[in-house]
Prior knowledge:
The chain is α+β, with helices and mostly antiparallel strands. It has helices spanning 29-40, 69-76, 82-94, 96-109; strands at residues 3-9, 24-26, 45-51, 56-58, 114-118, 127-131, 137-139, 145-147. Strands 1, 3, 7 and 8 form a 4-stranded antiparallel sheet that branches. The protein has a 4-stranded mixed sheet with strand order 2-6-5-4, with no helix packed on it. Helix 3 (82-94) runs antiparallel to helix 4.
Amino acid sequence: MPIRLWHGTSERFDVFDTSCMLGAHFGTAAAAEARLRDVAGGEGEVREFEITFQNALEIVDLGTWGFPSVPRELRAKGVLSPAQVDTAYEANNRSDAAGWAFVKEALGAAGYDALRYSNLVEDAGSESLIVLEAEQIGPCDDDSTRPSMNRG
């Protein structure tokens, strides 16, 4: 059963591209609006999506979700071995896409298709989710686009 969560963006697109990142972040409408204010001065839109996942890894809010913070945290949680972390770094040195592909494959092999965390910044205390693959993200059936808080 899909859940409905929000995403704020200043970009125009029809399909999410998660190939060069860990995944796409979703949360409450307030969290999406706060993130949009922080990164784009509120210019853009906040949209609701249907998110499908089977098993989310509970993780802390890393604040920044890039290399090397993600593999390091996954090692601390026992999801990646030290050798896998080294392999992830080697892959990332070749390209962002290769590094993230390795991390997502390792998460999948461990049985995870998403990460769930208590947001410490945007709408502090609310739950946020990172889904790993674009196929997990679908449109809502109703008109779920709404302007950001900074738009009249």
